Amino acid sequence: MWHYYLMLSLRSLKRSPTLYSMVILTLAIGVGALASNMALYQSMAADPIPEKSDRLFHVSLNSWPDEDSPHQQPLFVTRYRDAQQVLSSGIPTKVVAHYQTRVYTKSLDAKSLTRFAADTRATTPDFFALTNAPFAYGRSLSSAEGNEVVLGSDLNDKIFGGSNSVGKAVEIEGKPYTVVGVLKPWTLRPRFYHMEQDSAFRPTDDLFVPLETAIDNNWGVNGRSSSVDYSGDMASSRPHNRFYLSLWAQLDSAAQQDSFQQYLDNYSQQLKDAGEHPLAINNELKNVHEWADKLKVVDQRLLAFSIATMLFLIVCVFNASSLLLAKYHDDKSEMGLRRALGASRNQLFRQGFVEAMLVGSIAGSLALLLSWLFLACSVVLLPNLKAIAQLEPAVLGQGFAIALLTALLSTGYPLWRANRASISAEMK
Amino acid sequence: MLSMQNVSRIYRTETIQTHALNDFSLSVNAGEFVAVTGPSGSGKSTFLNIAGLLDQFDEGEYSIDGVSVKGLSDNQLSRLRNEKIGFIFQNYNLIPDYSLFDNVDMPLRYRGFNGKERKRRIEEALEKVGLASRMNYLPSQLSGGQQQRVAIARALAGEPKLLLADEPTGNLDSLMARQVMELLHDLNKDGATIIMVTHDPDQARSVPRNVQIIDGQMTDHRVYQPQSVSASVESEAELA
Ligand SMILES: Nc1ncnc2c1ncn2[C@@H]1O[C@H](COP(=O)(O)OP(=O)(O)O)[C@@H](O)[C@H]1O
Ligand SMILES: [Mg+2]
Questions:
Q1: What Gene Ontology terms describe what this protein does at the molecular function level (chain B) (predicted)?
Q2: How far apart are CA B142 and CA A181, in angstroms?
């Protein structure tokens, strides 16, 4: 019987091509706008590391030496000596200090002089275990010092053609560094370990180097760096009030969190007692979600826009429904005839359901095509959106389901109305 | 076959209420051919619609083939319509963009027959009305009389116990009307129970049993001896 219903639905579409085109287009535009928005929203609001996003904490430490800080306190970056103190607490399961820099590099053996620009993470070794960075080859850095490096997938492709380059060497500023690991392609949306200053949807880094090595080499900070009293080079900045390191800790239990918080507060209090800062004790541990919220990773305008697209979709459903109301009104006598000849109301409802599914499927496919086009266009206009303007399978599925639902909603009332009267009245 | 006891049907609008059928009783046995006559607006269609389960009634009892229809669900009523009743309308009610085959097919689909069974029944029914060779025509390619014969084929294909016809010749010229009448008489001879509404007294007289409705009530009820009208119809049809 479903096969018959499908055939009737196709005939029905063929009978009123203009009307159905309008219905389908109306629904497709409404669903398409919503799906594009959902795609943006979902990548912004996505959990980049669901297995432990509630156990990874960004550490903000309050140690700014002046009463009137130019920044909101606690500052999200720390001094070298504060970071060392935090790294040595022994409390977190894992703890990392890192900053972003940028170097130019090539294979040590390469005859060509071409060097590749590499967004570089200068970090302590726990970084890889803490962020669950996926290794294709080799291992993580063994120390915060020394001449080891880990390559991101893209850079390994550029320098070594994607081969297993573990054991080979790259050259940076004339010095050799040994490759100890290569990552698989690694997308983090958002890039939780570095979301500050609107960089949440930047790609993960190309190159990972030991923290101390980067500082010794004067590799500059490619991010927030604040200082009250220091303007010298990186290498001699260690004892000074230069704030630039991001701190992350993995804290697996509430007890661990408490004692770590206590540790930070004690440290901050000691500094205050020693007259190093005048501020109230205010150290924050924010897990990945809380940190993303605080940094407003999900654009609030997008939320407002989402509500607008939802309202727009409702308007579209009303429009489609009123078009279908006219169509079902015209079909009343045929439906009456079908019932007179033995179709039950239920059978006609099923027929209408199949037709709605057909219309919804076409509208859904068109909607997804439209939203793909829309996202592609927005990337052309705003290249920054590249990382978030993605149609994930989940969004595709949801968009399609919404299209089916809107088609059902649009059909429901007209169908019910057309089947309400007695058969003899319908056939008049 | 069909039994109505004190059936009333009242149409209410905001300003008036109409007793379209008023305390109406009628029994029809299997194999009978009944003509229903009466002035326009007297309740003939209302009676036929109730008989065909296309309309509800307000009071009284109605049973068809021994089944009382009171309190039956929409599904059960549809089933009865589909299996026991064949309906023929004044304006044929064919679906214009369906071929004759698909038009006759429609009630069989809801019956749930398989493709082979449907095909057999469609061909047989169209054969009976003399249109088997035009299975793939559209209704618009036929004359009015032929269209009505398709509608009769559609009613017959389900092999119903009861054929209900509401002015089946009302839109036809006299020759085509006679052909349709002849077909109905033949079907009746083959055992079909038929109730037909007509405004044509001659036509009514060719039918063995007559019922007259005025103002929703039965006013006259007579049984004729079968006449030879159908015989004269045949000779005229042959001339055509
Ligand atoms: N759906 C309806 N609503 C209101 N009045 C109706 C309706 N159908 C029929 N009637 C009224 O009921 C009466 C009988 O109608 P009907 O059975 O169609 O008469 P007939 O077929 O004998 O011409 C008429 O007065 C008609 O106006
Ligand atoms: Mg009438």
A1: ATP binding
A2: 83
**pLDDT interval class at B234 (50, 70, 90):** very low
Cα three-residue angle A69-A73-A74, rounded to 5 degrees:
130
What is the number of other CB atoms lying within 10 angstroms of the CB of residue A328?
21
Q: Higher-confidence residue: A380 or A289?
A: A289
How is domain B2-239 classified at the architecture level of CATH? 3-Layer(aba) Sandwich (3.40)
In terms of CA atoms, which chain B residue is nearest residue A342?
B82
Q: How far is CA B19 from CA A224, A351, B3, B195, in A?
A: 89, 36, 20, 22
For residue range A82-108, list pLDDT tens digits in order. Answer: 999 999 999 999 999 999 999 999 999
| CA proximity to B85, closest of B203, B198, B5, B165 | B165
Interface of A with B in 1-60 (CB under 8 A): 1, 4, 11, 15
Residue A131 predicted with pLDDT over 50: yes
DSSP state of B47: H
Sign of CA dihedral B40, B44, B49, B55: positive
3-state helix, strand, coil in chain B (%, to 5): 40, 25, 35
Average pLDDT over residues B223-238: 50
As a whole number of Å, the CA-based R_g of chain B is 18
Instruction: Name A283's Cβ contacts closer than 8 Å, sequence gap at least 6.
Output: A59, A60, A61, A62, A74, A261, A264, A265, A268
Domain ranges of chain B: 2-239
ipTM of the complex: 0.90
Provide the whole-model pTM. Answer: 0.76
